[in-house]
Amino acid sequence: MPNLEMAGALSVSPVTEPILSGRVGPQGLSVAWTGLHPSEMFWRQLRFAEFEVSELSLSSLLIAVDRGDTRWLALPVFTTREFFHTRILVRSDAGIDRPEDLAGKRVGVPEYQQTAALWSRGVLQHEFGVAPADMRWFMERPPERSHGGATGFEPPEGVELSYIPPETDIGHMLVEGELDATLLYLADRNLVDRSRLDLESDPRVRPLFPDRLAEGVRYHHKTGVLPVNHCVAIRRDVAEAHPWVVLNLYSMFVAAKEELYGRLRGALRPFQTVGWLPGDSPVTSGDPLPYGIRGQRHVLETLASYSYEQGLTKKPVPPEEVFAPPTLDL
Q: Which of 48, 106, 172, 229 has CA atoms 20 to 30 A from the CA of 76?
């Protein structure tokens, strides 16, 4: 049987590098891979469906499925994990010393519905008592360049949201005092995000959580959740025409992860290149990037509950409505 030819897109990371480089590939498939920044990749997929397989925003996929868009089937391959709320930045003079101080503040976000923002708002509400409606939101991406523009996004009831004018961005608004904080800051060059300022050494801006590791470990020990951000999605028409493709692709991602771990084995901190958590952290004592649904159902259901609670979906969308049937027992 000749190889099935497909086009695919992945973000560039240690866990995808074996695939993008061609060292690891799927059986029976010939995939032309493109390495893309996630912001651009998700916009292109949700609006134009350019690739048969790609990473995709879990939050946007939940919203799309909830609204009847069934073009995609997800694979339980989670290429990025992070405690996203620990990336919140605040102005040094905004009087924000604790997460609770965000109430009443002007908060920037690249995209309101993006998964990192969804996780951060959920943690702020459940851990610190600050609900989304307690803040004033300023979104950088305009509808035509946003993921929400392809899923029919409207600000949820009770949420005050303004679009940042095209002549400025989150970075400039932060340093000029027009924002008090930002939930996430993306300055990487791509076709969607427009912030470019380097805020790392700017004394006007500082992290809300000075010790990100300590806060991440605290949250994980309390909840058991290590948040997922991206999944891998295949076009439904391809999966239905060639059912064997689903598990062949899944096996490829597992092999790529194992190849990475094999190269890192023996290092002093073997998992530090996978994410921001050091290898000797209690959170990464096992597999820092577990795939599959069985062991991750609590994480996926927590994300779905946040999406419903925050008014992005009409119900908590279960994994069975999102992931390809052959993967549900993995």
A: 48
184 and 239 co-located in one domain? no
Average pLDDT of the residues of the chain: 92
Summarised one tens digit per residue, pLDDT across range 146-180 is 999 999 999 999 999 999 999 999 999 999 999 99
Tokens 């995609």 correspond to 72
DSSP code per residue over 105-128: -EEEES-TTSHHHHHHHHHHHHHH
At which of 223, 247, 270 does a domain end? 223
Among 138, 73, 89, residue whose Cα is nearest residue 110? 138
All residue ranges of the chain with pLDDT < 50 are: 1, 268-284
Domain range for 163 is: 84-223
pLDDT tens-digit readout, 195-207: 999 999 899 999 9
pLDDT score, position 283:
47
Tell me the C-alpha to C-alpha distance, in Å, between residue 323 and each of 13, 24, 232, 235: 23, 23, 10, 12
β-partners of residue 232 are 55, 75
CATH of the domain at 158: 3.40.190.10
Q: Map residue 57 onto helix, strand or coil.
A: strand
Helix%, strand%, coil% for the chain, nearest 5: 40, 15, 45
